[in-house]
Write a structure and sequence with these properties.
By secondary structure, this protein is mostly helical. It folds into three domains: about 230 residues, MFS general substrate transporter like domains (Growth Hormone, Chain: A); about 80 residues, no CATH class; about 240 residues, Growth Hormone, Chain: A, CATH 1.20.1250.20. About 65% of the residues lie in helices and about 5% in strands. The protein contains 16 helices and seven strands. The strands form three sheets. The protein has a three-stranded antiparallel beta sheet. A two-stranded parallel sheet has the order 4-7. Strand 1 and strand 2 form a beta hairpin. The protein is globular, with a radius of gyration of 26 Å. The N terminus and C terminus are likely disordered.
């Protein structure tokens, strides 16, 4: 029996529901099949996002600011729906079914988008004599339908891909734990690879062949990825769902509210606990108001049994898990503004590029493909960090690279400098526009003036994405990994929504369709002032992050703390 146990994974099962045999389930082969889904998701999403603004302005004849907001709202909704996907995976479907179902939904969305960009009836006629007819409500409705079906698919599958990938490794086995760390290090590399293919190959196909062909390629690639993913059904390890963490959090909050008037016990050992020692989280003295959910009182148990009422009595471990999630919130809030700056790279920066000189010899660079410098910065930064910084840091400090908070902070600094560089580049571009006339189709200024802003914000993403993912995964309770991933991705969502909000406010405050900071014609705008405003917001946010990061160190845990807590409460 002991020999058999050593070959199984304690908290995982195979596709038949039996304990997973580590010799023929899980590992790198299974994780690689999962990564295929992530590559194709990124291929589809970024293929749409980086070049959608040019389609909305040039083909659908929408104003510049409105087009930017449509893109950011689409991206924001995609990441916000990760919370829904995580809830469904934890409560009902499991990660495997969630990935399969929502990948299929994304195929449906890209298919509809391919058709909508192909049919002449679903887009307005070309401009004639300088008069452009705006897209009708029906035409925009079909476009919105396809975009938000894609957003639903993206949100559902993205919440579970990284978690299901790590499920293929046993964190109690040292060899597989090291493989899991390697998986995390390469996960973002594969995301960036998908983005690179999107902003080079597929953006070129959109501009030079047909948008419908590019979106069709996205549908086909995701279909193939699903087949590859399903082929590993027998090899995967499946973790049993422990229920929705959202429900657990609400139970603790409701129980603590009901017992808010009860006095604390003189000894914290009197608080309710039903977990065994290996899975128990020891009491901490932070957020003491939540401890009242673990105070035992009359009527806490179901009549005639020893089972507590879940909305009335929670264990210390349950309470501590909620505290762990609460400790993530300050850093969570201060990373939102980074994704607001990121949004400018796929909206206004692409629109800037469309007005500038983009020829290299006889080849015209598609405006959306300028984001290749953004993706290139990510890949170069990751390689430099992996091959240079980590070995150097290991020799100097004895640590495997920067901490997650240090990486987040470095990302915020780089994005701040990137916004300042964007403002300076726009000052130069506008001076050229004023000298030759704002109606000039292509300004005599090289598009490569935009490289610094793409490179700096891209390098910032390399640090902040990996730092955030590490921070939220490693500091969340084991049973809330999927939710913590959704919480991390919600910062991207809110960053895009904040961008839409700022664009709308600035447009209304500074002027309408002409003469304001964000006029319909970008050459008549003062986009440089908008970028300077974002730079100031980044500086303020960076200061807030530094304050929050000092308070985000893991609090002491263990029995050694209990005497201090008892004295404090008494």
């Amino acid at each position: 029996m002991e020999g058999k146990t050593s070959w199984t994974v304690a908290d995982a099962v195979d596709y038949k529901g039996f304990p997973a045999d580590r010799t023929n389930t899980g590992g790198w082969v299974s994780a690689a099949l999962v990564l295929g889904i992530e590559i194709c998701e990124r291929l589809s999403t970024m293929c749409i996002a980086v070049n959608l603004v040019t389609y909305l302005c040039g083909t659908m004849h929408l104003p510049s600011a409105e087009s930017a907001n449509i893109v950011t709202d689409f991206m924001g909704t995609s990441f916000l729906l990760c919370l829904l996907g995580g809830f469904l995976a934890d409560s009902f479907l499991g990660r495997f079914r969630t990935i399969a179902i929502f990948s299929s939904i994304q195929i449906l969305g890209t298919g509809i988008l391919s058709v909508s960009t192909r049919l002449p009836a679903l887009r307005p006629p070309p401009c004639a004599g300088g008069v452009c007819q705006r897209a009708t409500g029906l035409q925009m409705g079909i476009l919105y339908l396809s975009l938000y079906i894609i957003a639903l698919g993206t949100g559902g599958l993205k919440s579970s891909v990284s978690g299901f990938g790590t499920d293929q490794f046993d964190d109690k086995d040292e060899k597989e734990k090291a493989q899991m760390a390697y998986f995390f290090n390469r996960f973002f590399f594969f995301i960036s690879t998908g983005t690179l293919l999107a902003v080079t190959v597929l953006v070129y196909v959109q501009d030079e062949v047909s948008r419908s062909w590019a979106y069709g390629i996205c549908s086909i690639s995701m279909f193939v990825a699903i087949l590859v993913f399903l082929s590993g059904t027998r090899r995967y390890r499946y973790k049993r769902s422990s229920g929705s963490p959202i429900v657990q959090i609400l139970q603790v909050l409701v129980a603590a509210m009901k017992k808010r008037k009860l006095p604390f016990p003189s000894n914290v050992n009197a608080l309710y606990e039903d977990r065994s020692s290996p899975s128990r989280i020891h009491h901490t003295n932070q957020f003491c108001c939540l401890d009242k959910a673990a105070i035992m009182d009359q009527g806490d148990y179901i009549q005639g049994s020893a089972t507590p009422k879940p909305w009335q009595l929670c264990s210390v471990t349950q309470v501590e898990e909620v505290k762990m999630m609460a400790r993530l919130l300050p850093v969570w809030a201060t990373t939102i503004i980074f994704w607001t700056t990121y949004a400018q790279m796929i909206t206004f920066s692409v629109e800037q590029a469309s007005t500038m000189e983009r020829w290299i010899g006889g080849f015209l660079i598609p405006a959306g493909s300028l984001t290749v410098f953004f993706v290139g910065a990510i890949l170069i930064t990751l390689a430099f960090y992996d091959r240079v910084i980590m070995p150097f840091w290991k020799k100097w400090k004895g640590k495997d690279g920067f901490s997650n908070l240090q990486r987040i902070g470095l990302g915020l600094v780089l994005s701040t400098v990137g916004m300042a560089a964007a403002a300076l580049a726009e000052v130069k571009r506008l001076s050229v526009a004023r000298s030759v006339g704002s109606d000039t189709a292509t300004l005599p200024i090289s598009v490569f003036n935009l490289i610094p802003q793409f490179f700096l914000v891209g390098a910032g993403e390399a640090f902040i994405y990996t730092g955030q993912l590490d921070f939220f995964i490693t500091r969340s309770p084991k049973g809330m990994k999927t939710m913590s991933t959704g919480l991390f991705l919600s910062t991207l969502s809110l960053g895009f929504f904040v961008s839409s909000f700022l664009v709308s406010v600035v447009k209304n405050v500074t002027g309408g369709s002409s003469g304001g900071w964000l006029a319909d014609n970008i050459n008549d705008s003062r986009l440089d002032r908008f970028y300077w405003m974002l730079t100031v917001l980044c500086v303020i946010n960076l200061a807030a992050f530094l304050v929050c990061s000092f308070g985000s160190r893991s609090p002491p845990t263990g029995q050694e703390e209990d005497s201090e807590v008892q004295m404090e409460k008494v």
